[in-house]
Amino acid sequence: MAIFDSQSGLNKTNFELLCPALINQKLYGTCSESTSVNNISDAEKFGYGTLAVFIICLCSVLGLIVVPCASKKVYNFILSSFLGLAVGTLFADAILHLIPMAMGIHDHGEEGHGHSHEDSDAIVVEEYVKYGLVIIGGLYLFYIIELLMENLGHHSHSHSEHDHSENSYQVTEISEGPDKLKTENDSHGIKTSKNGVTPLAVMIILGDGLHNLADGLAIGAAFSGSISVGVGTSIAVFCHELPHELGDFAVLIKSGMSIKKALGLNFLSALTAFIGLYVGIVVSANDVVRAWIFAITAGMFIYIALVDL
User: Fold this and answer.
1) CA distance to 79, 197, 309, per residue, from 171 (Å)
2) Which pTM value belongs to this model?
3) By C-alpha distance, which of 23, 50, 99, 34 is closest to 280?
4) Where mainly located (predicted)?
5) Does residue 214 contact residue 35 with C-beta atoms inside 8 Å?
């Protein structure tokens, strides 16, 4: 109506010109107010969230599968592959999902778009996704440039091999048995308590429990936003938890702990993710709280991807 003079009313000619616009608005619901921004039921939040966290918790017992490969070169290859996957998924989820959600850029449900698409089957790439991809591309570009400069630098082969041996993951010779591990630990000065749990193992288990608690909180907030965001965050958490749990398992074994005890304690520390999940779902009913959780989670994901891994 803004294109016509509201004081003079509508004549027959203007009404005929206005009819196509009225029909278009009626068909596509352009002017209809969205009554439900988030139509996810509580059962879906708890159900999908519980399933996702349970699958992630299974990462803690996958060390049993890696045990036969622990003394082979394939262990390093598997761990490096999952580490690379974890870096990509964590950083991409933080840039493309969590930060836009925290800022309200990507805050919509299935009926809560600020605009309607005439063709629901068309693939629409939002502007913030393009900017996010440029950020990720810039990061990888400078990483490749730095990598090329290091390889073309003045480092000798012996120096490179020495650095690689210090920075590579240590592979535990599990196949040689706990007696071999105990002898190595004694020679390196690692103190083992009477129950086979070292101070290092306690720190790893407690730290892993707190880390999983934060992961569960992030997953709970994500599923409170939408199922798609919850699935994306769960995949990112899974990809960084898998190499993380395998590394923790190797360290626990190297500290002198038996395989059975290491698997049990690793799994118990993973169960704290359920506490974080249910707390995250409850507190994320408030949009402001959910936005803050997304912001904190994005910072945690970026730190883990670029520093910790």
Assistant:
1) 10, 20, 17
2) 0.59
3) 50
4) membrane
5) no
| Single-letter code of the amino acid located at 22 | L
What is the phi/psi pair of residue 42, to 5°?
A: -65, -35
In order of 55, 123, 159, the CA distances from 146 in angstroms are: 37, 35, 18
The DSSP result for 278-296, as a single string, is HHHHHHTTSHHHHHHHHHH
pLDDT classification of 236: cutoffs 50, 70, 90: confident
Q: Under a CB-based contact definition with an 8 Å cutoff, are residues 71 and 253 in contact?
A: no
pLDDT tens for residues 149-170? 888 875 555 554 555 454 444 4
Judged against a pLDDT cut of 80, whether residue 4 lies above it is answered with no
Which of 240, 309, 307 shows the shortest CA–CA distance to 59?
240
Q: What is the pLDDT of residue 106?
A: 60
Helices (H), the chain: 12-28, 42-57, 63-66, 73-93, 99-102, 127-151, 157-167, 178-187, 199-225, 227-254, 259-270, 272-283, 287-303
- Residue 190 CA to residue 294 CA, distance in Å, equals 39
